[in-house]
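Thread: Newbie trying to understand structure tokens

Hi all, I'm a second-year student working on a class project, and my supervisor (Dr. K.) asked me to get a predicted structure for one chain before our next meeting. I've only ever worked with sequences, so writing a 3D structure as a token string is new to me. If someone could post the tokens and maybe explain what I'm looking at, I'd be very grateful. Here's the chain:
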Amino acid sequence: MKNTASLVIIAGFLSIWELGARLYGKAFILPSPIQIFIRFWELREVLLLKHLPVTLMTIIIGLAISIISGTAIAVLMSSRPGIRKALYPILIASQMVPIIALAPIFVLWFGYTIWSKVAVTVLITFFPITVNTFDGLSSGKKDIQELFLTMGASKKDIFYKYSVPTALPHFFSGMKVAVTLSVIGAAIGEWLGAQAGLGYFSRRMMTQFDGAAVFAPIFVLSAVGIGLFICVTIIENRTLKWRIKN
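---
Reply by user tm_fold:
Sure, no problem. This is what the structure looks like when written as tokens:
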């Protein structure tokens, strides 16, 4: 029933969009969904074979760096109060600066290479992974940890057999946020400085006043974000089989 309701809402939204775009009559500003799909089909080889792989590579590298570094820092902060007090304010401050303002600086530092886009992606995905993992590692109950100790468990045993399982749901929650933000980060980086990628293609089509072609890569980016979210959900469900869902 929930899926049916979602489909009805989406269909209603697209119908209103289609009708409004046709009444407006300026496709270069507001193309209709049908016009966008037709334009996507015309550009499918360029979008899917040339620009999509570039954007996917940026997303994958950025997420990999964020997962490894974010998890490592979360573990350090949970085990060392001094490190937590030193790094936590810096993590928060890193999210106060608008990404759109930092992206040109990354282009200045790294040029029009993939690393300027990766830097934007890492900056935008690092925070949710780190904070959610840290919250998960810190959510363990002290009395249970003390019970482990009285039963002869070492700190290593407590970490791997209690803290990590407790933190996993929080980690996957952060991952769900991060994978969707990674698409935004890659697109922003490509929009401001790139030679290939879906964000770059959308910006180039905007200069040609081709509204449908501007929306076509956005459609692909949305599909990528949804696909990544579904992948994380599948991995979460297989990893957390022990968790009881209501």
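A couple of things are worth pointing out once you decode it. The mean pLDDT is 85. The chain has two domains: 1-27, 31-239. Feel free to ask follow-ups in this thread.
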